Every structure is written in structure tokens, then in C-alpha cells.
Amino acid sequence: MLPIILIARAIFPEVIAKLAQHFEVATNQTDESWTPAQLIQNLQGTQGVFTTGGERIDAALLAACPDLKICANMAVGYNNFDLKAMTAAGVLATNAPDVLTETTADFGFALLMATARRMAEAEHFLRAGLWTSWRYDLLAGADIHGSTLGILGMGRIGQGIAKRGAHGFGMQVIYHNRSRLDLATERACKASYVSKEELLKAADHLVLVLPYSASSHHAIGAPELAQMKPTATLVNIARGGIVDDAALAMALRNKTIAAAGLDVFEGEPAVHPDLLTVPNVVLTPHIASATLPTRLAMANLAADNLIGFLKHGTPLTPLNPELLTKR
């Protein structure tokens, strides 16, 4: 009898076909957003679940789904997983790192440019029929070339953004991370390690690429925004909750900082209503990894983790690998 797996959201048909070669597959191609109770109901009797980052796997769900052995996230982030509870329950967690690094770094830099050069404001201005003449300061933004790029969270994506800034735009790159990078990596990124306080004060453009955790919740709030230059921009492509969205909206309205670009939000897909009323912010719906080749690679990696673990006991990217030694 084949193991049963659930795919919690709509995904590529070819990935479903790949999984169907190894499992009895339950799908959600209508792409309903299930409540926690509905997710539990659909998980009954399943050994594995393919998640997309929005499905919360916690102690209550695990207690109600005793057959579950693996949760494979089609995302590099995994703040939807209570990893401690999963490990205690003997349920393997996997994510999808690496395959989205370059695509997400591309988007992060694009969002930085759109924010600094006020592209969203300019489009709205033009569409509203307000462009009637030239003026020396019309929608004038900030330079990117030769400016100081600050990166908070210097993992693979942060390093990709650093290289784009340093090598492509001649930016001075500074960063802060939980631990300093090795010298060879710093040199490859042309990046200098600084304290968080110095990062906030010195950056012309600050990009957030750190993982979400209890310790990083509201890592950027009113006190941190007050330390930034009034001409600075802030870009968040990490996770919602790292920025206090209410405090950011107030800082944008008060011109504490010049502008922001956000791809992630607290409580998404809901967006703090105050962010929708300020003009100096670029808003995108969590699409930093959204190219078809990258999303397909992410889905295939999640599928390969399910196949690798349930069929062979060898997942590719485990988050709690200590469970593998107990099998």
C-alpha cells in the first residue's frame, strides 16, 4: 500500500504527477485556504504533507494527526513550522533553500531600485493625469550607484544582494548578522561587518534578509527607524513581523525615512491599512521568488524531500536532522 500524502495548496501539475508515482496523493488544486481545523481534517491518515509556507504546523495539529511523519515546505523560510514541537513529535521538517537565492536577490535589488527612484509614485502620478510639465525636482529620488547599501541578515540571499550592489553599482556594502562572515566571503561581497546601530545610522538603503524568529520580531520598529537617515530607504524581502508595520507607516508619513519597499507583511495577505495610505512605499504581494523556473524548482525540491524521506529515509534538506539518527 502506498503512503498517503497531502498537497495543501495548488501546485504544478507535473509535480503532482511526479509524486503520484510514489504515493497516494490528495490535492487542493482549487487552492482553498484551509482553516487549521480543515487542515487537520484533510491530514487524517496521511504520512506526509507538502506545504507552501502558510500552513501552520504546531503542537495542536501534530497531536491531532498521529500518522504524520514529514512536512515539506515549498519555501526557504519555515516560520509556519513549530520546529520544537515537530521534533518532539518525531515529525521531520524540510524546506527549499538555495534554489530561490538568485531570483530572490534579483527581486530584492529591483525593489530597492523602485523604492529609491520612486517608481510606484511616478506611475500613479502619471496614470492620474498629473504630469503636465517638467520641474527640476519632479519625483526626484535617491541615487543607488556609489551609495551605502546596508544588509541585515547576510545569508545566501543577502550575499547575492551585496554582490549586485558592490559589483554592479559600486555601492559601499555594510552588513550585520548574528555571526560575522569569513574573510573570503566578505571579500567576494566587498562587504564590511558593522554593529546593528552603525548599520542603521550609515545605510542609504537598508535591505532586510534575516529569518523570522521570536528574537527577530519587530527587529525594525520605531526606535530603529529613528536611527536611520531621513533620506534612507528600507526594503523588506524577508518575512512579515520583522518590521513593525504600524511604526513604519508612521515613519513614512512623518518622513522619518524617505521611502520603503515591502514584499512581506505582518498577518499577510492582510496589509496594515496605514501602509495603503502613504505614497512613499512600494508594495508587492510576497513575490520575491516568483519566476516560473524558480517556483518549479522549489516545488520539485519539496517533492524530492517527501520522496527521499518516505521512500528511502534520506531527505535532501532536513531542518531537524537529529530525527534521522533515531530511525
Structure description:
- 43% of the residues are buried.
- The two termini are 21 Å apart.
- The protein is α/β, with parallel strands linked by helices.
- The model has no long low-confidence stretch (mean pLDDT 97).
- The strands form 2 sheets. A 7-stranded parallel sheet has the order 8-7-6-9-10-11-12, sandwiched between helices. It has a 5-stranded parallel sheet with strand order 2-1-3-4-5, with helices on both faces.
- Helix 5 (101-116) packs across helix 7.
- It has helices at 13-20, 36-43, 59-64, 83-89, 101-116, 119-127, 156-169, 183-189, 196-202, 222-227, 245-253, 292-312; strands spanning 4-7, 24-26, 48-51, 70-73, 92-94, 148-152, 172-176, 191-193, 205-208, 233-236, 259-262, 281-283.
- The chain has 2 domains: 4-99 and 292-326, 3-Layer(aba) Sandwich (Rossmann fold); 101-283, Rossmann fold.
- The protein is built from 12 helices and 12 strands.
Structural features:
single chain; 327 residues; alpha/beta; Rossmann fold; 2 domains; 7-stranded parallel β-sheet; 5-stranded parallel β-sheet; globular
